[in-house]
Specification:
By secondary structure, the protein is an alpha/beta fold. Helices cover 52% and strands 11% of the residues.
């Protein structure tokens, strides 16, 4: 027992390494994890005191635990059996397929990444690109949502900046879980998006197993009080108008709702509008081609953001006008009663978005130029003043007492964007830019539909 044993140096080092790993995994690492977990819980508790809607335990669950809970869900298990039978494969193969889907969908939320990094980036980027305005009713609408209800933001989709804008505005009230399309599944963006609590969805998937895994995750998150946000249009608007809604995610929420349960679901219509949509040329070109293939590369986006930050640091005003967000009248799913047709509910939500679409300077200028042709500065102001009474008061986020200054800012941005020009003291739409001007006018065209109001005749002259 006391005799000397000779070992090669490499084998001795290997034994020591194994011993060290064993000691760490059994004695040290659990204590370290417990220490950091306790610090994390205290930090979240302090953060929750500042949020109107505290972070729910569901949001803080480990990703591994959430995946396990999802793939062993009874409804998912039944769908696994159906998938195995339909595709003539063993159930363990179908089970692995469900696990792959769950790993693809379930995010890795980090409160530190969300509030220490994502919020700061969103704030810097949003304020570097736009002047941010919000409708007067927004705070009251959000504050009126009961604490035991899960808010679901239902938004129109004008630009990829929508994600940044709404995340920034919601940062003082709650965290948001977005349904993100496949466009964002590029490294390192995909990893960051998962840390921020977003989950990926396949827009074109028709498989029953995938849809079941996705629907159950969305239902679990909503029932767990995790504030949701999604775009019923399913993609960016190519024309500037609201698009017909898709009912996929909405149907998952309705199907998983228990009217007798403790937690209600409250849909909050959110209307977003811009003086300039960053992707406008790309969207207009896609509409002209009749497809939805967008040529913008992630490298181009990153380069654009870096240029903006650099100019901002040097004291230049890099903003492209105003971006505005308005909340519409919420819809309580419990008060709504039984949903016999999800498309009817979807149409009502889109109608409420349309009813509070923010009215900005560029859409107003685009509207009167389209309707009346070239205008002098004074004539344009008169045309806009004739339009304003036709607009819902809650939709106007401009300073109505200084509309001349608001229009001057809008014209300057449009001229810099190459949409309009001034010749002989008269403003003209530049040749070849008629479709682009129409794109911006379309965001508020529903307020001015011909025949809705006799005063439209004043605008059409």
């Amino acid at each position: 027992m006391t005799q000397t044993v000779e070992l090669p140096l490499w084998l001795f080092v290997l034994i020591v390494l194994f011993a060290a790993v064993t000691a760490l995994s059994h004695f040290l690492l659990p204590s370290v994890r417990w220490f950091f977990r306790r610090r994390f819980e205290r930090a979240v508790a302090r953060l929750n005191t500042r949020l109107k809607r505290p972070i729910q335990p569901f949001k803080l669950a480990r990703r591994y635990d959430m995946i396990q809970r999802l793939i062993y869900d009874p409804e998912v298990s039944r769908e696994i059996a159906i998938y195995a039978e339909k595709n003539n494969v063993p159930e363990n193969v179908a089970f692995q397929k469900a696990r792959e889907y769950a790993r693809e969908i379930v995010p890795t939320f980090s409160a530190f990444a969300y509030f220490s990094f994502a919020m700061r980036v969103a704030k810097l980027l949003a304020e570097a690109v736009y002047r941010i305005r919000t409708a007067s009713q927004n705070d009251a609408v959000f504050a009126a949502i009961p604490e035991n209800a899960t808010p679901v933001f239902v938004m129109n989709h004008r630009s990829n900046m929508d994600y940044v804008l709404v995340t920034y505005l919601a940062s003082k009230t709650s965290t948001l879980s977005y349904a993100v399309g496949e466009w964002a599944r590029v490294w390192p963006l995909s990893s960051l998006i998962r840390l921020w609590g977003a989950y990926f969805i396949r827009r074109r998937s028709r498989g029953g197993l995938y849809r079941k895994v996705l629907s159950r995750y969305v239902q679990m998150a909503t029932n767990g009080g995790d504030t949701q946000a999604f775009y019923p249009e399913g993609g960016l608007s190519l024309t500037g108008r609201l698009q017909p809604p898709k009912v996929g995610l909405l149907s998952y929420l309705v199907d998983g709702f228990d009217p007798e349960g403790e937690r209600d679901i409250v849909f909050v219509p959110v209307a977003i509008n811009y003086d300039r949509v960053l992707e406008d040329r790309v969207l207009i070109a896609a509409h002209a081609r009749g497809d939805r293939r967008f040529g913008a590369r992630i490298s181009v986006v990153v380069a654009f953001i870096l240029r903006k930050f650099w100019k901002r640091l040097r004291g230049h005003d890099t903003r492209f006008g105003t971006a505005a967000v308005a909340f519409g009248a919420p819809v309580s799913l419990r008060d709504y009663g039984g949903v016999e047709d999800v498309e009817v509910l979807s149409a009502e939500l889109m109608g409420r978005i349309e009813a509070v679409m923010p009215v900005l300077g560029v859409p107003l200028v685009a509207t009167v130029l389209r309707r009346s042709g070239p205008l002098s500065t004074d004539a344009m102001l008169a045309q806009v003043e004739a339009v304003l009474p036709l607009l819902p008061p809650k939709s106007i986020v401009l300073d109505r007492n200084d509309m001349a200054a608001e229009l001057d800012i809008a014209r300057r941005h449009m001229a810099q964007h190459g949409l309009i020009e001034k010749r002989d003291d008269v403003w003209h739409v530049m040749e070849g830019q008629e479709v682009a001007v129409e794109f911006y006018a379309n965001s508020i065209v529903h307020y001015l539909a011909e025949g809705n109001n006799p005063a439209n005749a004043a605008v059409a002259k």
